[in-house]
Structure formats: C-alpha cells, structure tokens
Write a structure and sequence with these properties.
binds adenosine-5'-diphosphate; Heat Shock Protein 90; Beta-Lactamase; five-stranded antiparallel beta sheet; single chain; alpha+beta; Helix Hairpins; 12 strands; about 55% helix
Length: about 550
C-alpha cells in the first residue's frame, strides 16, 4: 500500500472530524425539532379535541345523537385527523369517525387508556403531554393521540341521560388521534438535508485543507527534498521555493547547514585519506628501500669475502706475468711488433692488477675497522672536482656547485670520501657524452626527515647530505635496483668495472651513512650521499 501523504494524513481526519461534529450537532437539532413537532402535534390534537367538545356540547345536552355522529364523521375525515371517538367510563364506544367501532368496548389496557388507568385509582386530570401518546397504528403509520375528559356538568342530567354530578363526575372520554406522517416526513427531509450539508462541509474542509497543506507544506517539502538529493550529487546549496512558509525556509537553512558541515567533514576526511595514502606510500617506499639496502649490504659483505680470496689467488700469477712481460719487453727491439705486443700484455695485466687492488681495498674496507676522522665533505667534493677538472671541461660539462664551506664535519677518511665523489662525478661524466649540467648541492638534514629505514646505527641526530645531479642518460628502471651491485656495469669493456658505486656505498655505510639514487631514463640521475655529523669521542 503506498504511503499516505502529509496532506491526506491531516485533511482526511480533519474532514472525518468535521463530518462527525456537524453530524452530531445536526442529530441533536433534529431530535429537538422532532420533540417540538410532536409536542406541537399533541397540542394541536388537544385543541381539536377541545374544539370538538365545544362544538358538540349543545348536541350532547339535547341528546342530538345524529348531529354528534355527523360532526365527528365530518371532522374524522379531515386531512391529518386519523380518528375521533367518544366512549363512556366503562369503555363502550358511543360515537366514532369509524362507524364500525360504535357499540364496541375499548381495550382498557390499550394505549389510549393506560396513561390514566394504570394505577388503582384513575388520575382525574393529566397534563397534555401525559395525556398524549405517540405510537404506530395498524398500518404502521406514526400517530399522536390525546384524550379529553368529558366532565359531568349540571346540564347533563336533562332528559335523564346521566346521573347526578356527585354520583359520576366523569362521563366519558373524547379520543382524538392525529397522523404524524407529514411531520415525520418534514423531519426526515431535514435529516437528509443535515446529512448532505455535513457531507458537503466535511468534503469542503477536507478539500481546502488538502489544497492548503499540499501547496504550503507538501510541495515546498518535496522541493527541498529534491534539492537535498541534488546536493548529494554535488549541487552546493538547497534553495527554499519562492514564497515558502518561514518553517520551510528554516528547514532549507538547516539542510544547508548540515550539508556544509557534511561537506567540510568530507573534505577533511578526504584530506586525511590523502595524507594517510601519502604516508602509506612513503612508508612502503621506505620499506622497499630498506629491503634493497639490506640486500645490498649483504651482497657487499659476501662479495667482499669472495673478492678477497680471488684477488689473493690471482695476485701472484698476475705479478709474475707483469714482471716477466716487463723483462721480455726489455730484451726486444723497441720498434718491433713483438715489443708492442708484449707492452700490450703488460698494460692489460697492469689494468687487471689495478682491478685486483680495488677488490682487495674493497675487501679490506669491509673488514677494517678504521679510525674515524673528522672530515669535511666540502673539501672532499672540491678535491674530487679539482682532480677531474680537465675531464669535465673537455666533456662539455657545466658545473653548478652549491656546497657551503661551513658544513658540519662528518666522520670518515678524507681519501675515501674523495674517492666516493670521484666515482660519482666520473659516472655523471660518462652519462653525459654530449655534455650537460652537473649540479652539486650540500646541506644538512635531521634524522627524522630521512626516509631511509635501515641507516646503520649511529648516535648523530644531524646528517650532512651532498646531492649530485646530472642531465645525462639516466638509468633504465630495471637497472636502477642493480647499480650498487658489485660488478654491475653498463659501460663498455675497459671503461667500467662495476665496482665504483658498490665501493662507495660500502665506504659510506661504514661511517653510518648511505647513498640514495633517483633516476628516470632519459632524464638524468641524482645520487645523494648522506653521512652523519661527526661526534667527538668525548661527546659520544
Ligand atoms: P662502473 O662505473 O664501473 O660501471 P659503477 O658501480 O660506478 O660502475 O656504476 C654502475 C652502473 O650504474 C654504471 O655502469 C651505469 O650503468 C650506472 N650509473 C652510475 N651512475 C650513473 C649516472 N650518473 N647516470 C647513468 N647511469 C649511471
């Protein structure tokens, strides 16, 4: 069943209430009208009775029975008069408008007699309303009957008709019965009219209320509800319909307030969600970097051990090759091809010896617990730049250096720190074969701001950073996680050993720092060296 609207819920009960009230009022009025009509009819019947008695008094005194009968017959046939009869004290009917009744005895327990004859002593005089009775006749019609008592008066003994007054004070009764059909019809008509008016009033009140509620409550409410629905789809404001009642405007204002609160809460939630997402993404990145660095550290240490063994084994035969090739070359004529070949052997063997030396250094660095000195990173940077000055110039590299001299000192070893920057600058140079820009910036950062999770343990809270950014080829995404792997290189044979970054990372981690890399292929690369501020032994 569809839900009833507000207008129906209010207008319908109001209409029913009106119908019930007007109906009840009408019913009460009709009842009192009916009582009045009956009383009037009873009075009318009584007046007629009195008039008949006056009219036939003379005939009764002279015992003109025929004249009496004629009067009663004529009046009895008159419209509205149902019957007229006259009977004596014993109930014998002497005259009647219905001639068949004459000579019969009335039923003393009938409705005409009980009013006076119900007690042991008959009442002599009754009030009109007590003497009147309404009932339905044999044809089912509504009638009112009144009786007139015929007193024994001094003139009634003439002709020996009646005994002395003292012996019989009442001679008989005149019973006049009048039809109430006309009065009942009028009352019924009034009742029908009252019913129709009640229905009309109820219908009108229902209709008017329905219209008023629909126009001033239902429709504005529906408009506000539709506007509220639109608000959920992004419309910023609910407008109350023009000409709305103040309550509707208040409702629209409240909805607007709620909407504003909701939207500000939503934007707050979105901001929180965004922040949370950002934090989660950052943490995820930190975790993956940490994992990467742990793996890196493990690789470095295991490679360090392997490298130490291999280097040791290779070193002696390689020294022999260098020594003997040197000796052989001395015995060959300088301009000969053989001399040149042996020189080539000697040179390549020397290159191998260099790599082995690097490996040994690397392995030694892994194990060695060197004394940590107070070093200046700016000196390391400028030292490395000085070393590579010519190469950078020849390579068409423009330098953009922002490294303050007053950077806090870091713990380390001057030579090793410089070696790190030589590696980084050389890599940048190799990545920009057509020339480019090399940005070097330095600064400090608090531990809390560093995203790296697995920084080696160190008591410092402040760190010094050096960012080396080039505009070179950048690093392929798949190569990015491998750049710190020992022996990983993309350079042609003879140009790179793949040890530069792994050795550099090994050095930095040994002093409690790390190196971060960011790069997009084709958009250059950025390496950030992070080292903890030096803490004097007495401070730690
Ligand atoms: P090598 O320089 O001997 O190759 P590294 O360990 O120094 O060894 O570098 C490893 C690899 O990382 C390089 O071969 C190169 O592919 C990549 N790489 C390092 N630095 C850069 C850079 N600035 N730009 C592009 N690629 C780089």
């Amino acid at each position: 069943m569809p839900a009833r609207t507000l207008a129906t819920r209010i207008a319908l009960p109001a209409g029913l209430f009106t119908l019930a009230s007007v109906g009840a009022l009408s019913w009460a009025l009709i009842r009192s009208q009916r009582t009045n009509a009956l009383e009037e009819a009873a009075l009318g019947s009584e007046s007629i009775g009195e008039a008949i008695l006056l009219a036939i008094e003379h005939e009764m005194r002279v015992n003109e029975r025929y004249a009496i009968r004629e009067v009663l017959r004529n009046l009895g046939g008159h419209e509205g008069i149902e019957s007229i009869r006259l009977f004596n004290k014993q109930g014998w009917i002497s005259f009647s408008s219905d001639s068949s009744e004459v000579g019969r005895k009335v039923d003393m327990e009938a409705e005409a007699c009980v009013n006076c004859h119900e007690g042991p002593t008959p009442a002599v005089v009754l009030d009109t309303e007590d003497r009147a009775r309404t009932y339905r006749n044999a044809m089912g019609q509504s009638v009112v009957g009144t009786i007139q008592v015929i007193q024994n008066k001094p003139g009634c003994q003439g002709g020996g008709c009646h005994p002395a007054v003292e012996a019989m004070p009442i001679l008989g009764v005149l019973d006049v019965v009048m039809s109430l059909e006309a009065a009942e019809a009028r009352i019924a008509m009034t009742g029908w009219r009252a019913l129709i008016y009640s229905l009309l009033a109820a219908g009108m009140i229902t209709g008017v209320l329905f219209l008023i509620i629909t126009r001033s409550i239902h429709r504005p409410l529906r408009t506000v509800a539709q506007a509220t629905q639109r608000v959920t789809k992004g419309v910023p404001h609910v407008a109350a319909p023009r000409g709305s009642a103040p309550e509707i405007r208040i409702l629209a204002d409240s909805v607007n307030e709620v909407v504003e609160n909701l939207s500000s809460s939503r934007s707050q939630l979105e901001a929180w969600a965004g922040r949370l997402e950002h934090i989660v993404a950052e943490k995820a990145k930190e975790l993956s970097e940490a994992r990467f660095q742990i793996v890196q550290a493990e690789k470095l240490s295991s490679v360090g051990l392997v490298a130490a063994g291999i280097a040791h084994e290779l070193n002696s035969p390689l020294m022999a090759i260098i020594t003997y090739s040197h000796l052989v070359r001395k015995h060959l004529p300088e301009e000969s091809t053989a001399h040149e070949d042996v020189r080539m052997i000697e040179r390549e063997a020397n290159r191998c010896a260099g790599i082995i030396r690097q490996l040994l250094d690397y392995a030694r660095d892994q194990r060695r617990n060197e004394e940590v000195e107070r070093c200046s990173l700016s000196e390391a940077v400028y030292g490395a730049l000085e070393l590579l000055k010519i190469d950078l110039q020849n390579g068409g590299i423009s330098l953009h250096v922002a490294v303050p001299d007053d950077l806090p000192p870091v713990g380390g070893n001057d030579v090793q720190l410089m070696q790190i920057f030589v590696n980084l600058f050389m890599n940048a140079l190799h990545a920009m074969p057509e020339g480019g820009k090399l940005h070097i910036e330095a600064g400090t950062v608090e531990r809390a701001e560093i995203r790296v999770v697995d920084l080696p343990p160190h008591p410092a809270t402040r760190f010094v950073t050096v960012r080396v950014r080039d505009t070179g080829t950048g690093i392929e995404p798949e190569a990015l996680p491998k750049v710190f792997d020992p022996f990983f290189t993309t350079k042609p044979v003879g140009k790179g050993s793949g040890l530069g970054l792994s050795v550099s990372l090994g050095i930095v981690r040994k002093y409690g720092g790390t190196i971060l890399v960011e790069s997009r292929h084709g958009q250059g690369a950025t390496f950030t060296v992070i080292l903890p501020e030096h803490i004097e032994p007495s401070e730690g």
